[in-house]
Design brief:
About 40% of the residues lie in helices and about 25% in strands. With about 120 residues, it is of the alpha+beta class. It comes from Leifsonia soli.
């Protein structure tokens, strides 16, 4: 009888654990999708104020900071040189390296955008 009770307790614990994983997994997938959408928004916003950008590659998925703003690490290419930066929505960017000065006015171009999950697209 004690053995049957032990088996029931173990089965209940396993079922509860598996159910919890499923719920957390769904939350993680939603957050991943949200971060990818935020990466696209941040990139387009950044390109709007920096038309000389040739490519953006996000190196982190991104998250909401203590101040409540979303941001992610990225490599930004200008003049075939990569610059480390943090791109965010509504905050512009924070560059970790000196941003190039005296860059000639660019012609409108397409920008290669690579997301943190490795997928990519060309944006205008």
């Amino acid at each position: 009888m004690a053995r049957a009770a032990l088996v029931t307790v173990i089965a209940a614990a396993i079922t509860t654990g598996l159910g919890g994983c499923s719920i957390d997994g769904g939350k993680m997938n939603h957050q991943h999708s949200t971060n990818l959408a935020n990466q696209r928004k941040a990139a387009i916003e950044f390109i709007g104020s920096h038309p000389e950008v040739e490519a953006i590659a996000f190196t982190r998925e991104g998250s909401v900071s203590g101040s409540g703003t979303w941001a992610a690490n990225a490599l930004v290419s200008v003049g075939q040189v990569e610059y480390q930066a943090i791109l965010g929505i509504g905050i512009g960017s924070t560059s970790w390296e000196p941003w190039p000065t005296g860059v000639p006015a660019p012609t409108p171009m397409r920008v290669a955008l690579t997301y943190s999950d490795g997928t990519s697209e060309i944006v205008k």
